[in-house]
Amino acid sequence: MKKHFLSFYFWLSLPSLIYSQTDCSNIGFELGNISGWSLSRGTLTDDGTKTVYGTEVSGADHKIVNISEGYDAKITQDKISVVSGSNYAIRLGSDTEGGSYHRLKTSFNVTADNALFQYKFAVMLANDRQGHTDFQKPGFNIQITDQNGNQLACSYFDVQLSTPGSTATFKSQTYTNGTIEYKDWTTGAINLSNYIGQRINIQVTAHGCTKRTHFGYTYFDAQCLKAEIKANAVCPDENGFMTFSAPDGFAQYTWNTGATTSSITVKPTLDDKLWVKVLPLASLDKTCELQLKYELKYQHVYNTIDSTICEDESVTVDSKKYKATGIYTINISRQGICDSTITLKLKVTALTRYSNVVSLCSGKTLSVGSKTYNSTGIYVDTLQRAGKCDSIVTNYLTIVDVDISLEQSDFNLVTGDKAFLKTIAHSTGNYQYTWVPPIDLACATCSETWVTPSQSRQYKVYVVSQDNTSCRDTGTVNIAVRRCDIVILPNAFSPNLDNHNDYYFAYASGCVKQIKSMKIYNRWGELIFWKENLSPTDQTSGWDGTYKGVLAEVGSYAYQLEVELNNGLINNQSGAFVLMR
Question: What would the DSSP string read from start to end of 209-233?
Answer without folding.
Answer: -TTSSS-EEEEEEEEEE--S-EESS
